[in-house]
Amino acid sequence: MEPGDAARLGPGWAARALPPRLLLMLLLGRGLRGAAAASSYGAAAEDSSAMEELATEKEAEESHRQDSVSLLTFILLLTLTILTIWLFKHRRVRFLHETGLAMIYGLIVGVILRYGTTATSGHDKSLSCTQEDRAFSTLLVNVSGKFFEYTLKGEISPGKVNSVEQNDMLRKVTFDPEVFFNILLPPIIFHAGYSLKKRHFFRNLGSILAYAFLGTAVSCFIIGNLMYGVVKLMKIVGQLSDKFYYTDCLFFGAIISATDPVTVLAIFNELHADVDLYALLFGESVLNDAVAIVLSSSIVAYQPAGLNTHAFDAAAFFKSVGIFLGIFSGSFTMGAVTGVVTALVTKFTKLHCFPLLETALFFLMSWSTFLLAEACGFTGVVAVLFCGITQAHYTYNNLSVESRSRTKQLFEVLHFLAENFIFSYMGLALFTFQKHVFSPVFIIGAFVAIFLGRAAHIYPLSFFLNLGRRHKIGWNFQHMMMFSGLRGAMAFALAIRDTASYARQMMFTTTLLIVFFTVWIIGGGTTPMLSWLNIRVGVDPDQDPPPNNDSFQVLQGDGSDSARGNRTKQESAWLFRLWYSFDHNYLKPILTHSGPPLTTTLPAWCGLLAQCLTSPQVYENQEPLREEDSDFILTEGDLTLTFGDSTVTANGSSGSHTASMSLEGGRRMKSSSEEVLERDLGMGDQKVSSRGTRLVFPLEDNVRLPAQSPE
Amino acid sequence: MEPGDAARLGPGWAARALPPRLLLMLLLGRGLRGAAAASSYGAAAEDSSAMEELATEKEAEESHRQDSVSLLTFILLLTLTILTIWLFKHRRVRFLHETGLAMIYGLIVGVILRYGTTATSGHDKSLSCTQEDRAFSTLLVNVSGKFFEYTLKGEISPGKVNSVEQNDMLRKVTFDPEVFFNILLPPIIFHAGYSLKKRHFFRNLGSILAYAFLGTAVSCFIIGNLMYGVVKLMKIVGQLSDKFYYTDCLFFGAIISATDPVTVLAIFNELHADVDLYALLFGESVLNDAVAIVLSSSIVAYQPAGLNTHAFDAAAFFKSVGIFLGIFSGSFTMGAVTGVVTALVTKFTKLHCFPLLETALFFLMSWSTFLLAEACGFTGVVAVLFCGITQAHYTYNNLSVESRSRTKQLFEVLHFLAENFIFSYMGLALFTFQKHVFSPVFIIGAFVAIFLGRAAHIYPLSFFLNLGRRHKIGWNFQHMMMFSGLRGAMAFALAIRDTASYARQMMFTTTLLIVFFTVWIIGGGTTPMLSWLNIRVGVDPDQDPPPNNDSFQVLQGDGSDSARGNRTKQESAWLFRLWYSFDHNYLKPILTHSGPPLTTTLPAWCGLLAQCLTSPQVYENQEPLREEDSDFILTEGDLTLTFGDSTVTANGSSGSHTASMSLEGGRRMKSSSEEVLERDLGMGDQKVSSRGTRLVFPLEDNVRLPAQSPE
């Protein structure tokens, strides 16, 4: 290349001086190198005719313009969605959620793009060049003595070779599937973890874990097997034109098991529906996303020794299980570790004087989780989820007030944009995606299968959980959970990742239709369903449900006091108690400024270490009164109430009093001494019991306390 | 491709289940398709040997891991920078700014990567395949009957063909230059526009425009010509090994004329240095970035008819000038239009009840500016700047209080991350960029040239501006401006865009060194320089400088009152007055909730339209007391003070009193009635003059008022 040729690039260079190639590439992910390429080409082709150069430049310009226009299309779609959402919120319309709306607008634009635009010939010039034995990821091509580097974009199915030069606009709006996994999902998932309402989440942790792990696995296998039946049927009827293995069916079961009740939860939030139901639904949907991802990779990894994928191979099966456990625990660890590191950094530096730095650090550390997990071969999205939970549980306590709202708001905006983007893309994809395989039998079968799968997931599991729960999961709750089995962004992202084979294309189309149907119908039906099922609304989410909550009590029956005590013991099971006391006594004091001083909880011989790790604030307010901690105090208060059930009900307000006290503490934060004073003066009679609650869970008291409570 | 093969992808698929390919591609921009490619390949190559498949998979995994690691490197760098910045701020260290720090860390990591890592062989398999006449942007390659699509990545200079398989890590950390233009610069530039301190900016608008446009052009031509001399000298000495045209020199002049006094301004902010100096420096640097971008594209577009680029071609020159004007005004219009549209949308909807929606809309509209400008062939970065200014001036007024802080904080974080990213990349690039051309003569020449260019830019222009300014730009200010000619992100981004030719590579290396030198030395020297030049610090940025400001007065000489009145008239020149009254009477009322009702300012015959456009709030508080408006009230107060100079100085505090009143209004906002009461009671004697200020600028009064003031 000769010097000075840039100066001879011609006016075209100036006109497209700053092409947003990468911004676009980031989102469109394909065909965007064209502009860059043609530009380089224009620079290089000095010896070729000026006409040709001009043509290439025009082409590049045109392509660049189209890229901008297609991205603009999405932005305008989102803008339109936002304005309509506002109108809906303004008029309190609840039958259509913003995500449903985004899909509708996407659909409309998709129809316009599909049928309204002329099929312009592609700008990409294609050249067939036969290679010998394998595809390389990079090609060096020699053009009249100049070398050009090409990168592999992917395989083209033989039938599509001639349609590569198809409608440009349609191709432009079809994104690289990895965008969904690597750009759009992480903020959504992180936000889910970060905005988890911890108090209710942890109180229902056991049930949530059961629903998310067992339930998703059950649902996956049931759907997989049912779909295998459907596929067999299709083969008999002659509706199946290509292979469809059992593993494909299981894979479909895995991707479609990721529920995403975003519309239901939005309505719950708006109507302040029951917090426990909210926690169950939200917790389950957050965790089952992670389970579904890992499950689907494990199923793909299931590879029997022979080529007959129908045969069951124990070794391969256990390998898959091993992979599942490995990826899941690895990703979990990654997320937790970066969360803990962030907590330590924010605790031991005085970064909270500079909210901007703090927010930036928080953002970077959370992002690094994703990369770290990917670098170690784990799953970034799952790691990001647990990182979000850890950040909310520990780091959030150490942040300055400004950073707390900054980080919340930052991720809220990212989440909002990413989510609506995905949903409007889904609407668009129905018409612009070019590899749809519509199979009515499969689709109907899938709808039946997800219904049955959800039923087999919720009802039996709820039955078993109710054996151990004090607050039973009522029938109305179970029906609501059954009803709320929407499929959303995660199922879509998993389905679009690989649409190479016939089976996968059929799955993708079906998933898309399931998402549409569930979001529109269930989203619209939530409000009627809530009132039909008699689920109480208008609950203050920070308020504890009253001990005599109807929806619980009615279906719970009248257990005797001893039976209650028994259940109580079961709810606050050893795992949770162990975890709670460990967290409260060691983790919280080490990682945050709250909790009891380590010097009192750690054995004497690590006194120096304990002193180093305990922050001075802890001594000042031994009663942890910080905002986030109130979550746990509440849990504590709640559990005290649970333990001292028979005694507390005598003087009535004791339990709720403790709760509201802690709430006040969380809200006022600064007036901790005032708080203590108030307590000492006004609630002298409760002092002993309230001190008692602090000691409910130290490990050594585990055995004694339940025995004491009935006295 | 056969169905079910995904199931046979092997455990490797699971292990790298969610590669952050695109997140990485977004930032690394090259070589990242490898993983995807190999993955597709793995799926396709069923018939090839299992060994080979496994090898490809391993390769892909390795490459993917390296991508993650290299991005992690940057994140850790930024994290480290943040922590050190905190330490510096904590200990009030001012000799090194965060950007300087980011560069140092980048430099260290660059050295480690360069000399510490072994040159692993690249994972990219290359294949030379000779094509006939031109490079296409897409290649279809036929491998044993399967078709693969390849995209053009760019040309490789002949010397580098064999070094493509070089140290992978070094390649990985070398980003696609367009990343800087399309991902990192827009938030930086938008933030600059959005956070502009409008009051001082508009007061110094004339000077700022002069510095930014004339100054940058002067600086560009002087540097270009000096460098041409240097290049000639190098040719004589024999230091030049390739061609270096006059247009290249001018191009260098353009890119290096974009000043970026980020470190100086940070220190100004911290020390609360003089607000006018701040406004001059900040305004100039913001606008000259835009000028430099457009200037450099225009110079590239300068293409004389013949091939002899030395010859001056009038037609080509005027074409370049036309392109400059066209791109600049086009981009300006784009930015302003989207800003205005956003203002209208936020004014006429009640979106401010939903801050999340509002923030999302704001973000999307601002981003669409960039795309819109690019789609129309203008410059996105420049459009984004003017969009930011418009948004701050109009839209900001319509936002809810929460959205105001949200948008500010969102862009602040983005700006912070992007800026530090660029600077740490610069540090890294010094060692990892593989096409450096170090030419001592050129580098020394460039340092001399930018010094002379800056001098020729500041001193003569200041002299001419002082002829027309009441508040003279004192010598100390001029020296400070001369001193603050740092080069930063913009110069770097412009230099790295095209490093194909020898001349460009030399420019890039030189630019990098200039950035290093100026950021470190000038950044460290700002505080001593400020005290040495006697520039007052500790000024409340919201406070007007006192009329008897020493640094002004001392150097201003003792002008008589009449001379002062004369200057006054010149400062508030017709252009500004015209703009101000138009903005205050028409634009503000149409686009925001403040300003006088349109029904009073528009002619009677458009009464209905005026009524529709005027928001009801305006009638309630005819005195615009909203936060942002206080900026203009202050300007107004200031100008009143200016007009009534000889009279006001008699009773002393009048002017500053008006100013502080407006400030109070800006801060309290809600207590407007209280305000009015206070004014009516306590300052009855000033009521007339204070009413007078409201009427200083209506168009019809333009002529009469200055004549009235001396009385």
From TrEMBL, chains A, B:
<dbReference type="InterPro" id="IPR004709">
    <property type="entry name" value="NaH_exchanger"/>
</dbReference>
<feature type="transmembrane region" description="Helical">
    <location>
        <begin position="250"/>
        <end position="268"/>
    </location>
</feature>
<keyword id="KW-0812">Transmembrane</keyword>
<dbReference type="InterPro" id="IPR018422">
    <property type="entry name" value="Cation/H_exchanger_CPA1"/>
</dbReference>
<keyword id="KW-0967">Endosome</keyword>
<dbReference type="Pfam" id="PF00999">
    <property type="entry name" value="Na_H_Exchanger"/>
</dbReference>
<keyword id="KW-0739">Sodium transport</keyword>
<feature type="compositionally biased region" description="Polar residues">
    <location>
        <begin position="646"/>
        <end position="661"/>
    </location>
</feature>
<feature type="transmembrane region" description="Helical">
    <location>
        <begin position="413"/>
        <end position="433"/>
    </location>
</feature>
<comment type="similarity">
    <text>Belongs to the monovalent cation:proton antiporter 1 (CPA1) transporter (TC 2.A.36) family.</text>
</comment>
<keyword id="KW-0915">Sodium</keyword>
<feature type="transmembrane region" description="Helical">
    <location>
        <begin position="100"/>
        <end position="117"/>
    </location>
</feature>
<feature type="region of interest" description="Disordered">
    <location>
        <begin position="544"/>
        <end position="566"/>
    </location>
</feature>
<feature type="transmembrane region" description="Helical">
    <location>
        <begin position="208"/>
        <end position="230"/>
    </location>
</feature>
<feature type="transmembrane region" description="Helical">
    <location>
        <begin position="479"/>
        <end position="496"/>
    </location>
</feature>
<feature type="compositionally biased region" description="Basic and acidic residues">
    <location>
        <begin position="665"/>
        <end position="682"/>
    </location>
</feature>
<keyword id="KW-0406">Ion transport</keyword>
<feature type="region of interest" description="Disordered">
    <location>
        <begin position="646"/>
        <end position="693"/>
    </location>
</feature>
<keyword id="KW-0732">Signal</keyword>
<keyword id="KW-1003">Cell membrane</keyword>
<keyword id="KW-0472">Membrane</keyword>
<dbReference type="InterPro" id="IPR006153">
    <property type="entry name" value="Cation/H_exchanger_TM"/>
</dbReference>
<protein>
    <recommendedName>
        <fullName>Sodium/hydrogen exchanger</fullName>
    </recommendedName>
</protein>
<feature type="transmembrane region" description="Helical">
    <location>
        <begin position="508"/>
        <end position="533"/>
    </location>
</feature>
<dbReference type="InterPro" id="IPR002090">
    <property type="entry name" value="NHE-6/7/9"/>
</dbReference>
<feature type="transmembrane region" description="Helical">
    <location>
        <begin position="280"/>
        <end position="302"/>
    </location>
</feature>
<feature type="signal peptide">
    <location>
        <begin position="1"/>
        <end position="37"/>
    </location>
</feature>
<feature type="transmembrane region" description="Helical">
    <location>
        <begin position="68"/>
        <end position="88"/>
    </location>
</feature>
<feature type="transmembrane region" description="Helical">
    <location>
        <begin position="179"/>
        <end position="196"/>
    </location>
</feature>
<feature type="transmembrane region" description="Helical">
    <location>
        <begin position="360"/>
        <end position="393"/>
    </location>
</feature>
<keyword id="KW-0813">Transport</keyword>
<keyword id="KW-0050">Antiport</keyword>
<feature type="domain" description="Cation/H+ exchanger transmembrane">
    <location>
        <begin position="81"/>
        <end position="532"/>
    </location>
</feature>
<keyword id="KW-1133">Transmembrane helix</keyword>
<feature type="transmembrane region" description="Helical">
    <location>
        <begin position="322"/>
        <end position="348"/>
    </location>
</feature>
<feature type="transmembrane region" description="Helical">
    <location>
        <begin position="440"/>
        <end position="459"/>
    </location>
</feature>
